[in-house]
Amino acid sequence: MTVITSHNLTKQYGDKKALDQLTLTINENKIIGIIGRNGAGKTTLLKTCAGYIKPTSGELHVWGQQPFDNLQVLSNVIFIDEEVTYDETLKLKDILALGKIYYARWDEAFAKKLLHYFDLNVKQKYDKLSRGMKTQFNIIMGLSSRSPLTIFDEPTLGLDAAFRKEFYHILLNDYMKHPRTMMISSHMLHEMENLLEEIVLIHDGKLVMHDPIDVFQNYGVMLNGKNDQLLPFVENRQVLHQQPLGLSSIVGIKNDLTEEDLHYLNEHHIDISPMHSEDVCVYLTANGKVGGFDGYQ
Ligand SMILES: Nc1ncnc2c1ncn2[C@@H]1O[C@H](COP(=O)(O)OP(=O)(O)OP(=O)(O)O)[C@@H](O)[C@H]1O
């Protein structure tokens, strides 16, 4: 079943198009990574899908309905980011009690188990938690809501490595037991790759790529060899990155190598290595800057 469909979705702030004619389909029960550079439009996309932001133009449907200010959609969505705040008088247990009211699939026992595991005291006031502890609590709310559409916007921002690791592990286990649609934006792609089933890469508000994670992971290859042999080889190919090293170069290209290509590379001692997913993201959103910053010369 389809959860989200957008067609030419656009959100404009003054002259800036935070989302620019974005057409996308998200199917249910997947974990989807929303990636892109700073200012790409990730938060705007997620908040628009969560019904918090009204699109300027285009179409957006969540379970077939326009999400903005739509109670039926809102009751099935949870949106967690670092700006979530609660009334300063509320203790954690009071907030858990609210979970029961807001989320049909809320699992209070699970929430309490997680709080205990992470040494968060239910009697403590939310307002008195450290910033990292607030983020931990927000994540616990997000997981325990079991909302059919669970959205995490940069969930691990400011969290230590130990918690991040635990979070990925718990999220995956809970998702296996209770499948739902999860959209997660993050700049920590390398840490999250194993969780994700699909990647949505956006840049300047536009969709660059929406594919299964393995397509993304196999998108490019890095070649390292002598210029005489390497440069003619890459001449008519999609070059994503190029780094001269004197008489040699490192060149990143789209991975569409044939048997014949592999034979050539082998024969000319050109090394082939995988292009890391984070580099694929960087190179595909580089605005034509294939060689990186070189302003010191
Ligand atoms: N309320 C707003 N008013 C004006 N401009 C905005 C507003 N919200 C977002 N923008 C602009 O829209 C663009 C996309 O912002 P958005 O926060 O969606 O990006 P992002 O991909 O989440 O970035 P980051 O990774 O840095 O958090 C940016 O240029 C931002 O300045």
From TrEMBL:
UniProt keyword annotations, A-Z: ATP-binding, Nucleotide-binding, Transport
Transmembrane segments: none
Domain annotation ABC transporter: ranges: 4-229
Keyword DNA-binding: no
Domain of life: Bacteria
GO terms for MF: ATP binding; ATP hydrolysis activity
InterPro entries: AAA+_ATPase, ABC_transporter-like_ATP-bd, ABC_Transporter_VariousFunc, P-loop_NTPase
Signal peptide stretch: none
Gene3D superfamilies given in the database record: P-loop containing nucleotide triphosphate hydrolases
Pfam families, sorted: ABC_tran (PF00005)
UniProt KW Nucleotide-binding keyword: yes
PANTHER family cross-referenced by the UniProt entry: ABC TRANSPORTER ATP-BINDING PROTEIN ALBC-RELATED (PTHR42939:SF1)
Protein's recorded name: ABC transporter ATP-binding protein
Taxon lineage: Bacteria, Bacillati, Bacillota, Clostridia, Lachnospirales
